[in-house]
Amino acid sequence: MKAGIIGLPSVGKTTIFNVLMQGKAAAGPHAGRRLEPNVGIVKVPDARLDFLSSKFNPEKTTHATVEFVDVQGLVRGKGQDMALAPVRTVDALAHVVRAFQDESVPHSEGSVDPDRDKRNLDYELMLADIASIEKRMERLGKDLKKVKSAPLEKEFAYLQRAKAWLESEKPLREMEVGEDGKKLVKGFAFLSEKPMIYVENIGEDQLDRLRHPDAHTTLRPNTEQTIICGKLEAEMAELPDEELKTFLADYGLAQAGAERLIRTTYRLLGLISFFTVGEEECRAWTITRGTNAQNAAGVIHTDLADHFIRAEVCHYEDITRHGSMQALKEKGLLRLEGKEYPVKDGDILTIRHSG
Ligand SMILES: Nc1nc2c(ncn2[C@@H]2O[C@H](COP(=O)(O)OP(=O)(O)OP(=O)(O)O)[C@@H](O)[C@H]2O)c(=O)[nH]1
Ligand SMILES: [Mg+2]
User: CB within 8 A of 347, min separation 6: which ones?
Assistant: First the structure.
């Protein structure tokens, strides 16, 4: 799972990236234009895994992770290919939008207007997609004059449709493509097709909004929204855990913004976690909702999928209620499930295999 952090210049992308990395992975914010993107991996906070770990006392606890890529600010109207190249391969985009007022930080658009900036940057992504489509269509058009080919014709028709869609000022993430189309789309790595999280970077005078972080106007398809106060979070990232909790409580907050952003990314992508537990390791694994037991086993190791027999399944909630695997076994709460069982968020799996 990989997410790209994009936005206009000096909106707080690197500040938020550093918060996500808890100040460990990257140096300070970009001074001016830096071409190299910042890349870092964060643990997905999960109180359930922490609890399991406290029960099983394993040698190792391994959280699910998300990789974030922080690119330089996008300048509107300029060819964005270079700046956007590092985020072509991500699964989701996080667009950091400036909502904080600060005279000492210049705003590339002259004034603070989050809705305008959201629209404009979406528009830039759409323009970049139109440019890639036109290039591809030109080449395809030439090829199609030489040879007749059903797959190429299908691709051409799809591109025509996508282009018309974009020209009606709608991003590709809102276009229905069907299962066939999804494969085609993947190859193109279109930017406006990627699920999008709008991250409003608010000022310390707007902290009231954090009390209702999910309050928002209607969201467009395949988008999410979250709020973060980059500056405050940067200060919080320096605090040890206990102090952080007190700090959050003082502000009436249950969760740090970084944690919310990671969770929102998860939700947007339809991702869930299942666990494996034991004395050696307690671990969270990431799958998309609906993944069956055999494919989930494959996430752990391909051999486990190839030699899959059954999955022994219980749920995290069962452990909190009954205390231990042994107790679950005695109560008959450990089920055996077959290949097709759709794994649920919070399931604890033990894969039985013949390998
Ligand atoms: N007042 C205030 N300043 C902030 C906030 N977030 C970031 N800044 C400041 O804004 C400036 C730019 O922050 P960065 O995080 O480097 O912004 P960026 O989006 O990565 O910038 P580029 O990579 O150059 O496009 C820095 O001086 C930050 O201290 C915030 O929430 N409030
Ligand atoms: Mg930056």
Answer: 274, 275, 313, 314, 315, 316
Strands 271-276 and 65-70, sheet pairing: unpaired
CA distance 199 to 257: 10
Give distance in angstroms: CA of 14 to centre of ligand 2. Answer: 4
Which among 200, 195, 138 is positioned nearest to 163, based on CA atoms? 138
Per-residue pLDDT of 241-254, as tens digits, reads 788 878 878 877 76
* Measured distance CA(273)–CA(284) in Å, rounded: 6
Q: How many residues does the chain have?
A: 355
* Cα 16 to middle of ligand 1, angstroms: 8
Residues sharing a CB contact under 8 Å with residue 153, sequence separation 6 or more, in sequence order: 144
> Coil, helix or strand for 200?
strand
Closest ligand by atom to 31 CA: 1
Whether the pLDDT of residue 34 is over 60: the answer is no
pLDDT tens-digit map of 54-96: 999 999 999 999 999 998 888 877 656 667 888 888 999 999 9
pTM to 2 decimals? 0.88
Decide: 61 in ligand 1 pocket, CB within 6 A. no
Domains of the chain: 290-353 (3.10.20.30)
